[in-house]
Amino acid sequence: MSMFSQESGSLRKIGLIKPRSSLPQQVRLTHARGPIDVQLKHNARAKRLILRLDGRTGEPVATCPPGISVKKVSQFLQAHVDWLVDKQQGRPPNVAFEHGAVVPIRDQPHTLEHLDQARGTVRVLEDEGEKILLVSGNESHMARRVTDWLKKEARADLSAAVALHSDKIGVKPSSLRIKDTTSRWGSCSSARVLSFSWRIIMAPPSVLNYLAAHEVAHLREMNHSDRFWAHVQALCPDYEEGKKWLRQNGRRLHTYGVEPE
């Protein structure tokens, strides 16, 4: 054993160097419909093996805790292959931001239409009751322009809702950030920064209003105690409907703006 290896081993024993995961990047499962590749992600804080579909791509991902063997991972995943196939088949297909796609904006379907003009702009038109999101400029930039426009609309609606709720309970966030997260629709940091997923602009306005009320309430209570929910109810009396909508429909919003498989 070389000096470097010995030193690395000693440091590893006292916790200064974390052992590398021996897991491969993916494992292949067998099923009557064909092979299924599952991506493996090592997580030092994970307590158990978790199988899920990626919120954006729909690809299967397994989160693995430290010390678990490849054999155990493979056995677990193979035992759940039928569940995985059912989940994949029940997931709505990805919808890319491209010409002809239909995308919900404030819960209203909008057809994306490319206009071949030099100036890259995005605007909403209404033609015989049909809402059209007209996107001009280079078509190869269409997806980015649509995404940027949706982020801008989300920031405007969320800023207005946050300001309204903040005034009601006498609080004020330090800033408002727009992100693209899959695990949370919103968050409130100890520094009073409110963060939101821009995809909430695709939900009904009442759901966006609930989400804003939820995070503003955290400026009063950084927990989910009865006092916290009392603040939420005071700000948004129908908040239960917003929670239910996100629970039932939230995953669908993550399929938009993703290239089809």
UniProtKB/TrEMBL annotation:
Record InterPro entries: UTP_pyrophosphatase-like (IPR053136), YgjP-like_metallopeptidase (IPR002725)
Q: YgjP-like metallopeptidase domain: from which residue to which, for each copy?
A: 49-249
Identify the species of origin.
Cohaesibacter celericrescens
Q: Supply the Pfam families for this chain.
A: YgjP-like (PF01863)
User: Know the name of this protein?
Assistant: YgjP-like metallopeptidase domain-containing protein
